[in-house]
Structure formats: C-alpha cells, structure tokens
Model the fold of this input.
Amino acid sequence: MEIALGQSRNPCSICRGIDARLAVESVLGSPWNWCSVWRGIRTLARFLACKHLTWQELSDDILVEFRDWVKEEARHKPSSRNDESAKRTANLRLRVIYEFLTWAQEDALLIQSLVGNSATFPVRSSLPKLRNVNHKKLQGDKQKYPKLFQNVGTTSRMSDRQYWATDEDFEAIRQFFWSTGGAD
Done:
C-alpha cells in the first residue's frame, strides 16, 4: 500500500486502506469525532503538499510551521471569533497529528524513529513511551503534545458572555412542550 500524504495526488489518499479514526481512538482511549480526525489529516496533507514535503519528513520545526499555518487559516474563517479560537483549532489539528504519527509508528509500522521522547527523534513526544511505561511525568500535554499553543483552553466556551440556562428557563421550556405536545 502506498501512502501519498503530502504528494500531488488526492491529499486524503492516506485515509484509504487505513482506518485513521480508529487509529486515533485506540491511542486516546476515547472516541474522537471522525470529522476531527479526517480534518486533521487532510489539513496536514494540504500543508505538506504546499511545502512539497512528505509526512515522513516531519520534524518539530515543521509541526510548528503547520500549527502556525493552521492558526492563520482558521483566523480567516467566519467561525473563528478571535486569535484564541484559531489557536484552539490549530491545537486540535496538531493533537490528531501527534496521535496519528504515534499510531503510524507504533501500530501500523509505516514509519520508524520519527516520534519519541528524546532529542534523537525529529518529532518529540512522550506518546510512544506512554504505550510501554505509564509514568506520571510523561502524561502531561506538554510532554505528549509539546508544540501546542499554550494557555488557550480546549473549548470554544471560554467567554463570560456565555448564557447559562436558569431553572426558570428550563421550567418555561417544560411548560411549552407540555402545553403544545412538542408540536410547532
């Protein structure tokens, strides 16, 4: 099977023959939204195609470039409310890439010696080591995903302007559905 990520062919050809969603889910231990995984890998494929690189050539420096590229791309979309929101989008994509690279190296054996916890590896991350040794020192996000933007949170609901429904709101909704039977 040929992996064409970052080459001139369809950027998502890597998804054919590899169940990338399950790969990321198996590493994370919880189900990820398939769209998030697909978008992360597809975004990396577009970035690598623009840079004329293959995914086997990734390094920490290239991941930082990718992170910044995703942030700028997200910042120009209407759904991105501010710089922090764009950084969270970049972090989400980058987490998927770290998990995917770890899976590609440790489970699928598609690459060798790309991701690891020392300076000898082009991509630094504690994820491969966590597979064998569950040490607390290796479990933090800074060790698992060292090139993420820091201090931006993980959710889009960070604003104090978020409206939270009160008990009265819930009661009004209940009354509406009881009185209308759920019909419009």
About this structure: The longest helix spans residues 83-106.
